[in-house]
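Field: COMPLEX_INPUT
Field: COMPONENT_COUNT = two
Field: RESIDUE_TOTAL = 230
Field: MODE = joint
Values follow.
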Amino acid sequence: EAGVVQSPRYKIIEKKQPVAFWCNPISGHNTLYWYRQNLGQGPELLIRYENEEAVDDSQLPKDRFSAERLKGVDSTLKIQPAELGDSAVYLCASSLEGQGKNSPLHFGNGTRLTVT
Amino acid sequence: AQSVTQPDIHITVSEGASLELRCNYSYGATPYLFWYVQSPGQGLQLLLKYFSGDTLVQGIKGFEAEFKRSQSSFNLRKPSVHWSDAAEYFCAVAPPYNTDKLIFGTGTRLQVFP
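Field: COMPLEX_OUTPUT
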């Protein structure tokens, strides 16, 4: 099966500019996650979708971050405006039914964002 | 607050040597426990997980981990390391009431010498 696809792989922008990341999960996977991984750290959950519904966005900085998952398939994560501290790798993951139902997460290769 | 500690930031072993990566968690109840591996420029891959039952868990690529409740630990082991095992290893926990909310440790970077 094709894995989780993310684009772009790299993005360099100036602070205060907007940026968007795209994720295509594994076909049939209902649950989609966005994580942020700062340098030298483990990933931190930003938002989780069950189909098209955001069921956990408690860690998403809502003043500048937004996300959507139209039709419960692809998802985009947007930052506007970007700040220097947003430099990180943004990882997308998907699972068939969510981890609690013994359905493992499959991660994409991530988008490395550099804000200058 | 729940947390995961990986005390070793960087470990170096010779190819063929045994390996143990440490993981300790702080949590009120027994959480779900995971080990992931991340190769450079790649996403994370699940090595193994523990939900309940047998405390010795077998995973992919010859890895195993043992859950020790008394020590709040979930250490990862491999009897003989291969050069291709060089990567970053992350321990993670998920609370039983919110199993999709993974909390990752800071990772251990494994370097393998020939």
